[in-house]
Automatic annotation (TrEMBL), chain A:
Job description of the protein: The pyruvate dehydrogenase complex catalyzes the overall conversion of pyruvate to acetyl-CoA and CO(2). It contains multiple copies of three enzymatic components: pyruvate dehydrogenase (E1), dihydrolipoamide acetyltransferase (E2) and lipoamide dehydrogenase (E3).
Single annotated GO MF: pyruvate dehydrogenase (acetyl-transferring) activity
Database matches in CDD domains: TPP_E1_PDC_ADC_BCADC
Protein's UniProt name: Pyruvate dehydrogenase E1 component subunit alpha
Gene3D superfamilies: 3.40.50.970
SUPFAM superfamilies: Thiamin diphosphate-binding fold (THDP-binding)
Species the sequence originates in: Raphanus sativus
Cofactor(s) named in the record: thiamine diphosphate
GO BP term, pick one: pyruvate decarboxylation to acetyl-CoA
Domain Dehydrogenase E1 component residues, every copy: 68-364
From TrEMBL, chain B:
Subcellular location: Mitochondrion matrix
Keyword terms of this UniProt record: Metal-binding, Mitochondrion, Oxidoreductase, Potassium, Pyruvate, Thiamine pyrophosphate, Transit peptide
Record EC number: 1.2.4.1
Protein name (record): Pyruvate dehydrogenase E1 component subunit beta
Reactions mediated catalytically: N(6)-[(R)-lipoyl]-L-lysyl-[protein] + pyruvate + H(+) = N(6)-[(R)-S(8)-acetyldihydrolipoyl]-L-lysyl-[protein] + CO2
Protein's organism: Raphanus sativus (Radish)
């Protein structure tokens, strides 16, 4: 009964790709930056704002970098799946495969001075900000070579030098935090914006609306990005939101609905949103996307959606395949060249995993580091304070 | 520079008020706060206001945020005049949305600004407690030092007068249990100035617990404390009154009650040492234990709920570190184990009174050596 409802609603997820692209003269694999114009798969739907054009400017080198970077993200998440099953990754592990176009398209539209903050599904966002796969795998396996020195784990990746502020475990908390980052950018006159990512599950949180209200009142340069993968853990959007038109939920805040599986559409929307936020305050972007894995590694992801739905999206809307087809049809590279690239990426990921596996675990004394910046010589204790205690510098 | 200022401040405090009290005791006068002609007095309210003002002046990254802090001049007038002086880009009136504006404050601190977030009372901080604990306190640790959070959460804490159960809770024990937070509780005007300035300058998140009933009280204040560079050290308690028979530890408004209790005890030949904790986290276990090792008796006092309170932590610390020095069981005087009632007589019964502290100290003293 529930499943039949599922299949009738899930057909909306299978949006066919746009029609044929113009053929051009054959070119070698290139770092060519001559502009190519591509149409997005779908037009943008908007709320309280004129949508941007469907024609997106890109280039051979950009498309190739999209392909490679998304392939790297995809491989990383699949490797993480294996490591989790091998019990080398513990606790929670929320994978992003399927959603890569959001991270990649966003990075193409912004700079490292623009800030990003997201939820616990943060591995690929970290990579997009310039984080390395070795640091990522090390962190997942709790090694000191991890991006948070093994102290954070899967949900707490950060890269402050690239304006990436994590990595947050509490659903929706990143919404006001991100508006706070935008506040700081405006306060310091930085001419930069903050992209705050949250899911359809978080989209009903009260604190999101509190933050939106203040962002709109104070004209903060905040872009709120709802990564709508249609499931908040095991609860489909139609079961949790009276209105799942998340791009309209801002009411007085303009919004745009974007095909989140189309990296170029994401890029166009983010570019548009950044310009808007700098001039007019907050805007919401709803990215229509999909996660192939369940909510986390503890969730098979198939009790609340059909395997047909998952494989259907993979066949029709996969973000990497979309860019692959674009590259081939524009004669930027051959299918074999792209497959070779994927093999290279796989080798890179395997090497990083192997290196991370050999990396050291933290010292016991690391238990007591970074509690405070200034500890003033106060004490912290282990389970038995007569056995284990430390003075905090 | 910090350490030097801290030491100087402590010497001045100890020297001034301790000698002042000793001279009063000898002459038999009761007043705890009389002063030599010519020295200044300041209310806690003015002390807090001047502290925020000076820190805003010194550092353009410091800004104030909260309900009614700007145009209304502050619900309790702590932020009076700041909007006029610094403008709307430094003083922000927020809507009544604690979760939202606290999160925004923490996010601003992630990016390196120094927010001073006011809760109209700490009862309302519960609406934002996830941001205080999970977004602020734990970030430096989870990020292995990449993201520090130089934020101050301040406002009145604990019981006022007749405001009922939802507006009277003390949050010291809850916040002080969290590693990554610092929790301060001033008593006097000097405490208010020195601790708030230290809190605003501090690179870590600080919960600053004021007391509404203390805002209007005047205290003597030294020239040292009026200087704009004045700071008190975080993590150091102050011995308000030296004694040798029993140690009384407490914080905030109860310091005044403990000092009154000490006067009464002195009349009966019991010399009480009163410790003003000032810092609930880090807790100055060294000063507390050194005092108990001297007096061999402990009475801990707080206004908050008795179970799992600050007093419980102090008692445990003393029993762990100074067991063989104790000549009597440790005593706790705390708020009653009830939601705060409204009726005046019941409210009085629900809060520690001077006679409760006196009684507990006497109990601690009438044990065989």
């Amino acid at each position: 009964m529930a499943l039949s409802r599922l299949s009738s609603r899930s057909t909306t997820l299978f949006q066919p790709l746009a029609a044929a692209f113009p053929t051009t003269l054959r070119r070698h694999i290139s770092t060519d930056t001559t502009p190519i114009t591509v149409e997005t798969s779908l037009p943008f739907t908007s709320h309280l704002v004129e949508p941007p054009s469907r024609a997106v400017e890109t280039s051979s080198s950009e498309l190739l970098s999209f392909f490679r970077d998304m392939a790297l993200m995809r491989r990383m998440e699949i490797a993480a799946d294996s490591l989790y099953k091998a019990k080398l990754i513990r606790g929670f592990c929320h994978l992003y495969d399927g959603q890569e176009a959001v991270a990649i398209g966003m990075e193409a539209a912004i700079t490292r001075r623009d800030a990003i903050i997201t939820s616990y599904r943060d591995h690929c966002t970290f990579l997009g900000r310039g984080g390395g796969i070795f640091e990522a795998f090390s962190e997942l396996m709790g090694r000191t070579t991890g991006c948070s020195k093994g102290k954070g784990g899967s949900m707490h990746f950060y890269k402050k030098d690239a304006s990436f502020y994590g990595g947050h475990g509490i659903v929706g908390a990143q919404a006001p935090l991100g508006c706070g980052l935008a506040f700081a950018q405006k306060y310091s006159k930085e001419e930069a914006v903050t992209f705050t990512l949250y899911g359809d599950g978080a989209a009903n949180q009260g604190q999101l609306f509190e933050a939106l209200n203040i962002a709109a009142l104070w004209d903060l340069p905040a872009v709120l990005v709802c990564e709508n993968n249609h499931y908040g853990m095991g609860t489909a959007e139609w079961r949790s939101a009276k209105s799942p038109a998340y791009f309209k939920r801002g009411d007085y805040v303009p919004g745009l609905k974007v095909d989140g599986m189309d990296a170029l559409a994401v890029k166009q929307a983010c570019k548009f949103a950044k310009e808007h936020a700098l001039k007019n305050g907050p805007i919401i972007l709803e990215m229509d996307t999909y996660r192939y894995h369940g909510h986390s590694m503890s969730d098979p992801g198939s009790t609340y959606r059909t395997r047909d739905e998952i494989s259907g999206v993979r066949q029709v809307r996969d973000p990497i395949d979309r860019v692959r087809k674009l590259i081939i049809s524009h004669d930027i590279a051959t299918e074999k060249e792209l497959k070779d690239m994927e093999k290279e990426v796989r080798k890179e990921v395997d090497a990083a995993v192997a290196q991370a596996k050999e990396s050291p675990i933290p010292e016991p004394s690391d238990l007591f580091t970074n509690i405070y910046v200034k500890g003033f010589g106060s004490e912290s204790f282990g389970a038995d304070r007569k056995e284990l205690r430390a003075t905090l510098p | 520079m910090w350490g030097i200022l801290g030491r100087r401040a402590v010497v001045v405090d100890g020297g001034f008020s301790a000698s002042c009290l000793r001279s009063r005791m000898r002459s038999g006068l009761v007043s705890a706060r009389s002063y030599a002609a010519g020295s200044k007095e300041m209310t806690v309210r003015d002390a807090l206001n001047s502290a925020i003002d000076e820190e805003m002046s010194a550092d353009p990254k410091v800004f104030v945020m909260g309900e009614e802090v700007g145009q209304y001049q502050g619900a309790y007038k702590i932020t009076k005049g700041l909007l006029e002086k610094y403008g709307p880009e430094r003083v922000y009136d927020t809507p009544i949305t604690e979760a939202g504006f606290t999160g925004i404050g923490v996010g601003a601190a992630y990016a390196g600004l120094k927010p001073v977030v006011e809760f109209m009372t700490f009862n309302f901080s519960m609406q934002a407690i996830d941001h205080i604990i999970n977004s602020a306190a734990k970030s430096n640790y989870m990020s292995a030092g990449q993201i520090n959070v130089p934020i101050v959460f301040r406002g009145p804490n604990g019981a006022a007068a007749g405001v009922g159960a939802q507006h009277s809770q003390c949050y010291a024990a809850w916040y002080a249990s969290v590693p990554g937070l610092k929790v301060l509780a001033p008593y006097s005007a000097e405490d208010a100035r020195g601790l708030l300035k230290a809190a605003i300058r501090d690179p870590d998140p600080v919960v600053f617990l004021e007391n509404e009933l203390l805002y209007g009280e005047s205290f003597p204040i030294s020239e040292e404390a009026l200087d704009s560079s004045f700071c008190l050290p975080i993590g150091k308690a102050k011995i308000e009154r030296e004694g040798k028979d029993v140690t009384i530890t407490t914080f905030s408004k109860m310091v005044g009650f403990a000092l009154k209790a000490a006067e009464k005890l002195a009349e009966e030949g019991i010399s009480a040492e009163v410790i003003n904790l000032r810092s609930i986290r880090p807790l100055d276990r060294a000063t507390i234990n050194a005092s108990v090792r001297k007096t061999s008796r402990l009475v801990t006092v707080e206004e908050g709920f008795p179970q799992h309170g600050v007093c419980a932590e102090i008692c445990a610390s003393v029993v762990e570190e100074s067991f063989s020095y104790l000549d009597a069981p440790v005593e706790r005087i705390a708020g009653a184990d009830v939601p705060m009632p409204y009726a005046a007589n019941l409210e009085r019964l629900a809060l520690p009174q001077v006679e409760d502290i006196v009684r507990a100290a006497k109990r601690a003293c009438f044990r065989s050596k």
